[in-house]
Design goal:
alpha+beta; CPE0013-like fold; 2 helices; 10 strands; 36% strand
Length: 120
């Protein structure tokens, strides 16, 4: 049996959640969550962790060399470094508007990389 301690980030309470997993990575027990959202968070964090990716992309012809970007949804945690390698080879031409899609469907995840700042 494997035990994981997780701090829930869904709400400001920050509940400490204990998850017991089998050797086959199946959830046996979840304790410590203060609400149903914490239960869902713990399940997702143990079985399929995902994160929103934030980084920068090169800009050609703008007032700045980089524009901040983020994924428009959570990406599987084990794909984050691969996504960064793809994004490292991307550049956009100025002007860039907040919300512009900089890269569509990164690594066939259905998630887009979008600008989080406007640049002229």
């Amino acid at each position: 049996m494997i035990s994981k301690n997780i701090i829930c980030t869904v709400c400001p309470l920050g509940c400490g959640i204990d998850v017991s997993l089998s050797d086959k990575n199946e959830i046996l027990e979840i304790r410590g969550q203060g609400c149903k959202r914490g239960l869902s968070y713990a399940q997702a964090e143990c079985l399929a962790p995902a994160r929103v990716l934030t980084t920068t992309v090169k800009v050609e012809g703008g007032g700045s060399r980089l524009v901040p970007v983020k994924s428009d949804g959570p990406l599987p945690k084990d794909l984050l470094l691969d996504c960064m390698e793809v994004i490292d080879n991307v550049s956009v031409k100025a002007p860039v508007k907040i919300g512009d899609i900089v890269f569509r469907n990164i690594l066939d995840t259905g998630i887009n990389i979008v600008a989080t700042k406007s640049l002229n």
